[in-house]
Predict the 3D structure of the following.
Amino acid sequence: MTVEESIEIACPPAVVWQFVADPMNDPRWCPKVKRVEPSGPTTWTVAHKPVPWRPAIELELRQVELDEPNRLLIREEDEVSVFEVEYRLEPTDAGTHFTQISEIEWKRLPRLLHGVFERGVHRDLRVQLRRLRDELAGRS
Protein backbone atom coordinates (compact mmCIF):
# COMPACT_ATOMS: atom_id res chain seq x y z
CA MET A 1 0.00 0.00 0.00
CA THR A 2 1.26 3.49 -0.86
CA VAL A 3 0.24 6.66 0.95
CA GLU A 4 1.38 10.06 -0.34
CA GLU A 5 0.77 13.59 0.94
CA SER A 6 2.37 16.98 0.21
CA ILE A 7 2.44 20.43 1.77
CA GLU A 8 3.99 23.82 1.11
CA ILE A 9 6.34 25.07 3.83
CA ALA A 10 7.36 28.73 3.90
CA CYS A 11 11.09 28.24 4.44
CA PRO A 12 13.99 27.04 2.30
CA PRO A 13 14.67 23.32 1.68
CA ALA A 14 17.91 23.49 3.71
CA VAL A 15 15.96 24.52 6.82
CA VAL A 16 13.30 21.84 6.31
CA TRP A 17 16.01 19.26 5.65
CA GLN A 18 17.94 20.13 8.81
CA PHE A 19 14.78 19.57 10.86
CA VAL A 20 13.34 16.42 9.23
CA ALA A 21 16.67 14.64 8.74
CA ASP A 22 17.17 14.55 12.53
CA PRO A 23 14.83 11.89 14.00
CA MET A 24 15.29 13.46 17.44
CA ASN A 25 12.88 16.18 16.20
CA ASP A 26 10.15 13.66 15.35
CA PRO A 27 8.20 14.08 18.63
CA ARG A 28 7.78 17.76 17.74
CA TRP A 29 5.92 17.10 14.50
CA CYS A 30 4.83 13.45 14.56
CA PRO A 31 2.00 13.23 17.13
CA LYS A 32 2.23 9.45 17.51
CA VAL A 33 5.96 9.52 18.32
CA LYS A 34 6.50 9.58 22.07
CA ARG A 35 10.28 9.10 22.38
CA VAL A 36 13.35 8.73 20.14
CA GLU A 37 16.71 7.34 21.27
CA PRO A 38 19.83 6.87 19.15
CA SER A 39 20.85 3.22 18.77
CA GLY A 40 23.60 3.51 16.14
CA PRO A 41 25.08 5.93 13.60
CA THR A 42 22.01 5.75 11.31
CA THR A 43 19.47 3.99 13.54
CA TRP A 44 17.13 5.04 16.32
CA THR A 45 14.69 3.29 18.64
CA VAL A 46 11.33 5.02 18.56
CA ALA A 47 8.45 4.59 20.99
CA HIS A 48 5.26 5.33 19.11
CA LYS A 49 1.58 4.89 19.69
CA PRO A 50 0.04 3.95 16.34
CA VAL A 51 -3.34 2.88 17.75
CA PRO A 52 -5.37 4.89 20.29
CA TRP A 53 -6.12 3.23 23.62
CA ARG A 54 -3.23 0.80 23.16
CA PRO A 55 0.21 1.06 24.78
CA ALA A 56 3.15 2.53 22.91
CA ILE A 57 5.33 0.07 20.99
CA GLU A 58 8.91 0.33 19.80
CA LEU A 59 10.09 0.48 16.24
CA GLU A 60 13.49 0.67 14.64
CA LEU A 61 14.06 3.69 12.43
CA ARG A 62 16.97 3.51 9.99
CA GLN A 63 18.12 6.15 7.53
CA VAL A 64 18.65 4.27 4.27
CA GLU A 65 19.53 6.99 1.77
CA LEU A 66 20.28 10.70 2.08
CA ASP A 67 20.53 13.18 -0.78
CA GLU A 68 20.77 16.48 1.10
CA PRO A 69 18.63 18.64 0.85
CA ASN A 70 16.42 16.91 -1.73
CA ARG A 71 15.54 13.40 -0.63
CA LEU A 72 15.64 11.20 2.46
CA LEU A 73 14.66 7.53 2.57
CA ILE A 74 14.02 5.86 5.92
CA ARG A 75 12.79 2.45 7.02
CA GLU A 76 10.59 2.05 10.07
CA GLU A 77 9.82 -1.44 11.35
CA ASP A 78 7.86 -2.67 14.33
CA GLU A 79 6.07 -5.93 15.15
CA VAL A 80 3.06 -5.03 13.00
CA SER A 81 4.41 -3.24 9.93
CA VAL A 82 7.28 -2.04 7.78
CA PHE A 83 7.16 1.52 6.44
CA GLU A 84 9.56 2.64 3.71
CA VAL A 85 9.24 6.43 3.98
CA GLU A 86 10.57 8.89 1.43
CA TYR A 87 10.76 12.63 2.01
CA ARG A 88 11.11 14.78 -1.12
CA LEU A 89 11.97 18.45 -0.84
CA GLU A 90 11.65 20.79 -3.82
CA PRO A 91 12.41 24.51 -3.75
CA THR A 92 9.55 26.85 -4.66
CA ASP A 93 9.20 30.61 -4.83
CA ALA A 94 7.48 30.49 -1.44
CA GLY A 95 9.85 28.01 0.22
CA THR A 96 9.65 24.21 0.00
CA HIS A 97 7.25 21.71 -1.51
CA PHE A 98 7.51 18.78 0.92
CA THR A 99 6.19 15.34 -0.04
CA GLN A 100 6.07 12.22 2.08
CA ILE A 101 5.54 8.87 0.36
CA SER A 102 5.07 5.82 2.56
CA GLU A 103 5.17 2.26 1.22
CA ILE A 104 3.53 0.10 3.87
CA GLU A 105 3.73 -3.64 4.39
CA TRP A 106 1.48 -5.06 7.08
CA LYS A 107 2.92 -8.07 8.89
CA ARG A 108 0.04 -9.09 11.14
CA LEU A 109 -2.94 -7.02 10.06
CA PRO A 110 -5.90 -8.98 8.66
CA ARG A 111 -6.58 -8.05 5.03
CA LEU A 112 -10.09 -7.01 6.02
CA LEU A 113 -8.63 -4.09 8.01
CA HIS A 114 -6.19 -2.80 5.37
CA GLY A 115 -8.61 -0.16 4.03
CA VAL A 116 -9.45 1.13 7.50
CA PHE A 117 -5.78 1.45 8.41
CA GLU A 118 -4.94 3.06 5.04
CA ARG A 119 -7.49 5.80 5.70
CA GLY A 120 -6.04 6.25 9.19
CA VAL A 121 -2.50 6.54 7.83
CA HIS A 122 -3.65 9.19 5.30
CA ARG A 123 -5.34 11.18 8.08
CA ASP A 124 -2.31 10.87 10.38
CA LEU A 125 0.04 11.94 7.61
CA ARG A 126 -2.00 15.06 6.82
CA VAL A 127 -1.94 16.03 10.53
CA GLN A 128 1.79 15.33 10.69
CA LEU A 129 2.60 17.52 7.68
CA ARG A 130 0.51 20.40 9.03
CA ARG A 131 2.41 20.16 12.32
CA LEU A 132 5.70 20.19 10.40
CA ARG A 133 4.64 23.31 8.49
CA ASP A 134 3.54 25.02 11.73
CA GLU A 135 6.71 23.99 13.59
CA LEU A 136 8.89 25.53 10.88
CA ALA A 137 6.81 28.69 10.39
CA GLY A 138 8.96 31.78 10.52
CA ARG A 139 12.31 30.01 10.16
CA SER A 140 14.56 31.00 7.30
About this structure: The chain has one domain: 2-136.
